[in-house]
Each structure stands twice: as structure tokens, then as C-alpha cells.
Amino acid sequence: MIVHAKLIAAAFAGFLALMPAALAQTATEVPPSDKVSAAVTNYTRVRPQIASAGVLREGAVAELKGFGFTAILDLRTPQEGTQPEQRAALEAGLRYFNIPIGAVPIAEAQLVEFAKIVEDKSNHPLLIHCQSANRVGAMWTLYRAVRGAAFATAVTEGRTIGLKGDRERIVRAQLGQPPLGR
């Protein structure tokens, strides 16, 4: 199912009217990538209050807690091992969210749920992750484009986070953009 930007924007319109114009700031900022250990793979500081990553290895949840993170948003499917991470996050006192993104295009409902979590300042500082950060890049690109960022800006941000290959082709189709190479 291909979801075009206009359809996503229409579904989002009422929801976004209730959201603040900008992401709210809290006292703690996420650390730069040179401060995070290899336990947090493919780490990128997206915004002062938001970071992205690939898989979280042993010790990563405790490290994130130590850096002041409040919540983790996991885009992996349950088959990829979300339960142990959920337990570790909750035991560490972190909020844990899961939006399982598989191999299909991202659904409007998933994008709306993502926006609610990302835009809720009580979840900041927030780490968004999946296995490699490719799904994070895809979701971020869609989110930013629907929120009004120019497509070139949204896709550049997504690529910086980890968007690549087939996921970029899917995102381009969802947003009604031409395939790469045109």
C-alpha cells in the first residue's frame, strides 16, 4: 500500500493542531557521539533532546540512564528481541515504547504514534533505535516531511541517521517522490 504525502498530511492535520510548534526542550541534552560507548551502536545526536541508534548491546540501557535519557523508542519487531530490552529499560526506570516496523511501508497509524512519542516532552531525552538505524532514518524522514520540512532536508536528515537502500526507495514512494537517479 502506497501512502502519499497528502494522505498522511490529511490524517495528521487534526493531531498536529494539538501539538506544540516545536519540540520542547528539557534540562538534559543527549550526549554527542564521541561520549557514547560501542554498546550503543550507530549512535547519532538528532536534536539536543533526541538521539538515534542501531542495536543496543549489553550495558547500553544503563549507560543511557546514566546520560539522563528518559525514554527509549524501539522500532524493532518482537522477533528481534524487544522483550529483554523492555525489561531492562523498565528496571532502569526508563519509559519504553515499541512501534514494530517490518519490511512493509510505514503505516499512517505508526507515523502518528511516532509523532506523539517524539513530541511529548516528558519522553525527552529520547533514544529512537532499531537494529541498524535504517528504520529510524525512514521514520524520521517521513515524520519530518509530514511536519513540513522540505523533502531534500528530510531525506538528508534521514540518511544522516541511517536511511539507506530499499527503505529510502519505500519512503520516496510513500511521499510521492521520484526514485533515486531521476
Strand and helix order: HEEHEHEHEHHH
**How many DSSP E strands?**
5
Fraction of residues in H or I helices: 40-55%
Distance between the termini: 22 Å
Low-confidence stretches at least 5 residues in length (pLDDT < 50)?
10-26
Structural features, described:
The protein is of the alpha/beta class. It has a single domain (5-18, 29-174), classed as Protein tyrosine phosphatase superfamily (Protein-Tyrosine Phosphatase, Chain A, Alpha-Beta Complex). Helices cover 42% and strands 11% of the residues. It has helices spanning 5-17, 60-66, 82-91, 108-119, 134-146, 151-161, 165-174, and strands at 44-47, 50-53, 71-74, 95-98, 126-129. A hairpin with a 2-residue loop joins strand 1 and strand 2. Helix 5 (134-146) packs antiparallel against helix 6 (151-161) and helix 5 packs parallel to helix 7. The longest helix is centred in the N-terminal third of the chain and has 13 residues, at 5-17. The protein is globular, with a radius of gyration of 16 Å.
